[in-house]
Automatic annotation (TrEMBL):
GO MF annotation: an example: beta-mannosidase activity
First-tier enzyme category under EC: hydrolase
KW Hydrolase (keyword) present: yes
InterPro entries for this protein: Beta-gal/glucu_dom_sf, Beta-mannosidase-like_N2, Beta-mannosidase_GH2, Galactose-bd-like_sf, GH, Ig-like_fold, Ig-like_GH2, Mannosidase_ig
Identification of the protein by name: Beta-mannosidase B
Record domain Beta-mannosidase-like galactose-binding: where: 25-53
Pathway: Glycan metabolism; N-glycan degradation
Domain of life: Eukaryota
One Pfam entry name: Mannosidase_ig
Biological classification of the source: Eukaryota, Fungi, Dikarya, Ascomycota, Pezizomycotina
Domain Mannosidase Ig/CBM-like: 562-649
Organism in which the protein naturally occurs: Tuber melanosporum (strain Mel28) (Perigord black truffle)
Length: 739
């Protein structure tokens, strides 16, 4: 306790002294090696807890393996893997170390004994023709059982550690591109470039023990539920954000098991950190210990120095001159943090040996190109939508980068969550203080209303309508962005965009934020929009401007009478598919004309990239909705998309679209039909009947003459409700037939 009080006194003094320098660079949080989000962020409360957040135990031993480091390296030819192992040995009785490797299918494939010398050991073991680990979007996740056992003089076991080890070849591709400036930024697993679609991860609770401690809910339960949710959304990449923690072993083990790639920030975020010798030594030791702990995981694909520190140096005028390369120059300026980013961290990671497993150190995020957040080199954070100039989300097309490691759009949580976070019904209003106090984002009120006013006819009250509209708009923005950026993953030499990581997957309290699933693991519509954009084979579209307005008519939308369609595939072989198109008048539901026949059309989808399909003309674009479906040769729906006039606020919807749900007992699905087009149909179990079902898709667009299958688990015999955009203008009626 004395140390904690002493640190606090130092921080109070430093905070007064550093406040003269202004901004985030003077914040006392940066002088404590503690999760930075505990001082509050724009999505969570400021609650700086103290004490350990993981279990503490006392161990008694005669011999023990400490600081175990495993460095698996798959050769370029993919024909063998060398696994270097080293550790320190504590105790006086350990003489030898046995290493045993068992194949994923069982059976010992290699075994060796190494001698302990000077209380240390190191050795290497080789696996021939390894079963390779892949992200789940591209292959299987075989893992070897890797055991390191300390033996006494009589060969009895003193200490044994077992890891499950995936073997993969990793390379960060940064080569010139054929048609755009700059260089690629793509992770190649086993020589296969991967489009990284996924999320940013923040700590799962503002009180970490509620999430990480096995005496609360069980570590596997919390982490597995969240990471399984991400995988179910076809996400393959998680960025562990630098304002949190280097996660627990359970987290990385699950990412290995589930086939999720991990981008790991080191623990610096949005600040100008001190660089005196004592602090740097703490950082060096922390980095060696933490990265040694996780370096063997096949899921780990990048170690990044920080979150947004270098970018902020440019935005806030700190002394960051690329031509200055020495510590002496940095220490004379006011951005001394460069010493950590460019000396301390790289040297610590060299001690760990990250390059031996194919990992690279990336100095910051965003980073690369002129001004750190340039977009044509390295990774980019796109916050000119929602933050900054608050561009329309449709600008995401032009705001692309080689790898989008952050972007996002706010919305409230699920109404079930709101009812729990606001127990007083009188406060459940879109403009009540208790509701708005759960949004920590600066200027969020004006941003939310402005964006909805640009795009939708919306209602502030009742709160259910406001939440529906805000969540629908978030899903439109996120779906548009991911579809647009995935399109730019066009093949070798044309990896114009190789990643889209939404900010953020999760919340650390019941709040209004950028999360695509709320604190209680309830997915928002944006989760499903992203899931559809990341399906193994997706089909998407863009309405193209065909006539610009005269200046006198600039208040009217530009004419968009052409629609371009494309397909994206993560499969490693070509796919033969059938395409079908349909068009309907939005108000009446009657079939509308388009320039392409609505009969099936065959297409060959190229592997692991984008295939441009067709462009069609729509004679009456402002009143016509166009849908497209892509099917396998056996008739299985691989993907579908629906194109509406933009903006939606000018669309006239049917007063009663006659939504019909068919539910067959014993089948985990709901079949949806309608007589007139419906935008953003959200299905749920009535709150009066308990927790919602687990929907495999939601917030869907439905057009006449089709039947949309919605997977669902846990529905049982409970009733289903449905709602859609502008249902308050007509009849909100859903017919349910049980068969």
């Amino acid at each position: 306790m004395g140390n904690i009080c002493f640190s606090r006194r130092i921080c109070l003094f430093l905070d007064r002294w550093m406040s003269l320098r202004g901004g985030a660079e003077g914040h006392s949080r940066m002088y404590l090696r503690k999760a930075q989000y505990h001082w509050g962020w724009d999505w969570g409360p400021a609650l700086a807890s103290t004490g350990p957040y993981l279990p503490i135990r006392l161990e008694i031993f005669a011999g023990r393996i400490d600081d175990l480091k495993i460095l698996p390296k798959v050769h370029d030819e993919l024909d063998k893997a060398d696994i270097k192992v080293s550790a320190k040995i504590s105790g006086s009785e350990g003489n030898h170390v046995l290493i045993e490797v068992k194949a994923p299918s069982g059976g010992v494939v290699e075994k060796k004994v190494f001698e302990v010398k000077n209380e240390e050991f190191e050795g290497s073991i080789t696996v021939i023709e390894p079963d390779l680990w892949w992200p789940h979007t591209h292959g299987a996740q075989p893992r070897y059982e890797f055991t390191v056992e300390l033996l006494s003089g009589d060969k009895s076991s003193l200490h044994k550690i077992t890891k499950h080890l995936g073997l993969r070849h990793l390379k960060l591709l940064q080569h010139p591109l054929k048609s755009v400036p700059g260089t690629s930024f793509a992770f190649a697993i086993n020589h296969t470039p991967v489009f990284s679609g996924g999320s940013n991860w923040i700590p799962g609770d503002f009180f970490l023990p509620r999430f990480t401690h096995p005496n609360s809910q069980g570590v596997d339960t919390n982490y597995r539920r969240w990471l399984t949710l991400a995988k179910s959304g076809h996400q393959n990449t998680i960025r562990v954000w630098g304002g949190g923690i280097v996660e627990t072993d359970h987290f990385y083990n699950l990412c290995d098991e589930l086939g999720l790639l991990v981008w790991q920030d080191l623990l610096f975020a949005c600040g100008n950190y001190p660089a005196h010798d004592e602090f740097c030594e703490l950082v060096r030791e922390e980095t060696i210990v933490q990265v040694t702990r996780i370096v063997h995981h096949p899921s780990l694909v990048l170690v990044c120095g920080d979150n947004e520190d270098v970018w902020l140096a440019g935005l806030w005028g700190w002394d960051y001159k690329e031509e200055e390369k020495t510590v002496e120059e940095w220490m004379r300026g006011n951005f001394q943090h460069r010493k950590i980013l460019e000396r301390v961290l790289p040297e610590a990671l060299e001690v760990v040996g990250i390059s031996e497993v194919g990992l690279e150190y990336w100095e910051s995020s965003p980073f690369g190109g002129k001004g750190a957040n340039a977009g044509d080199v390295g990774d980019v954070h796109i916050w000119d939508v929602w933050h900054g100039p608050m561009h329309p989300y449709q600008f995401y097309k032009d705001l692309t980068g080689r790898f989008v490691s952050e972007f996002g759009f706010e919305s409230p949580p699920n109404m079930r969550t709101i009812n729990r976070m606001l127990p007083n019904p009188a406060t459940r209003q879109s403009q009540s203080l208790p509701f708005l106090a759960h949004d920590k984002g600066p200027g969020a009120q004006r941003r939310a209303v402005m964006y909805m006013g640009e795009n939708l006819r919306f209602r502030m009250d009742p709160l259910e309508d406001y939440v529906f509209c805000a969540q629908l708009l978030q899903s439109e923005a996120i779906g548009f962005a991911v579809n647009t950026w995935r399109r730019e993953f066009r093949g070798p030499g044309e990896e114009n965009c190789s990643g889209a990581l939404v900010w953020q997957l999760n919340d650390n309290w019941p709040g209004i934020s950028w999360a695509i699933a709320d604190y209680y693991l309830r997915p928002k519509p944006a989760f499903f929009a992203m899931k559809r954009a990341l399906t193994p084979i997706s089909i998407s579209l863009e309405r193209i401007v065909t006539k610009e307005n005269l200046n006198i008519l600039r208040g009217y939308p530009e004419q968009k009478s052409k629609i371009a369609f494309w397909a994206c595939s993560s499969f490693l072989t070509e796919t033969t598919a059938a395409l079908s198109f349909a068009a309907h008048d939005i108000a009446s539901g009657e079939v509308a004309p388009i320039s392409l026949s609505t009969t099936l059309t065959s297409a060959t989808i190229k592997p692991n990239c984008t295939t441009e399909l067709v462009t069609i003309e729509v004679p009456y674009p402002t009143i016509t909705v166009v849908s497209a479906t892509i099917r396998s040769p056996t008739g299985e729906v691989l993907g579908r998309c629906v194109s509406w006039p933009d903006p939606l606020k000018f669309v006239t919807f049917a007063k009663d679209p006659e939504v019909l749900l068919r539910i067959k007992d014993g089948r985990d699905e709901v079949l949806v039909k309608c007589a007139k087009p419906v935008k953003g149909l959200v299905l749920q179990v009535s709150p009066e009947e308990g927790e919602d079902a687990d929907w495999g898709d939601n917030c869907i667009d439905v057009v006449p003459d089709e039947e949309v299958r919605v997977p669902v688990r846990g529905l049982a015999r409970r009733g289903v409700e449905g709602r859609w955009l502008c249902d308050w203008e007509g009849v909100r009626r859903v017919e349910v037939i049980r068969e």
